[in-house]
Amino acid sequence: MKKIIAVTCLILALTLYNYPVYDDKKITFAIIFICFAVLVFSIAKLYSPDEKDYDHFEKEMDKLHEYDGIFQYTTGGFYIKQNSNPEFIQWDEIKSVYSFSIPSAFDDRQSGLEIITDEKSYEFDYKVTPGIVKFGDQLSTHLPGWKLDSSMVRMNNSGLFKTKLYERKLTLKSHS
């Protein structure tokens, strides 16, 4: 990158020293304009090397979709390994799943997933829960009727928003 900047500066200096390079001033202006454009883009690229390309982003997302974090999956459900003794939750026990977003004092908003089972409720924050990306994938795979296109509903005046992603269908038993 530094070589491109040096060569461009040399061409620009020679062009300005021998002004006009050609009989037609339009060609000289074009050379000067191209040199300035190359300089601007080269210097911008030189001072922002942290710019990540699509391949890097794709690899990061693949890692997130494969990382278990605090969750361990089985065919019948999953374990949450937060405490010393992991909790097992069966896929059949989950009554509903909500995506939530609330105002936060430390951040603009705090968002995550709320899982409601027959016995307990769990909340997992997107920023601090290791493995939440794969967890969302697993939930959408194992729970029938997963809806990502549900509308967000304001739940209270303090700014809580919820989106229902899944709700278990109640089956009525017939008396035969």
Describe the structure.
The mean pLDDT is 81. The protein is elongated, with a radius of gyration of 29 Å. It has helices spanning 2-17, 25-47, 54-66, 132-142; strands spanning 71-73, 77-80, 87-90, 94-103, 109-117, 121-125, 153-154, 161-167. The longest helix has 23 residues, at 25-47. The protein is an alpha+beta fold and 176 residues long.
Distance N terminus to C terminus?
80 Å
Largest sheet: 5 strands, antiparallel
Number of strands: 8
Spatial shape: elongated
Output the number of helix runs.
Answer: 4
Overall pLDDT confidence = 81
Order of helices and strands, N to C?
HHHEEEEEEHEE
Low-confidence stretches: none
The helix content, as a percent range, equals 25-40%
Could you state the oligomeric state of the chains shown? Answer: single chain
The largest beta-sheet arranges its strands as 6-5-4-8-7
Q: What amount of the residues lies in strands? A: 25-35%
| Classification by helices and strands | alpha+beta
Specify Rg, calculated over alpha carbons: 29 Å
Summarize the structure in short.
Helix content is 36%, strand content 25%.
List the helices and strands and how they pair.
Blueprint: H1 2-17, H2 25-47, H3 54-66, E1 71-73, E2 77-80, E3 87-90, E4 94-103, E5 109-117, E6 121-125, H4 132-142, E7 153-154, E8 161-167
Helix pairs in contact: 1-2
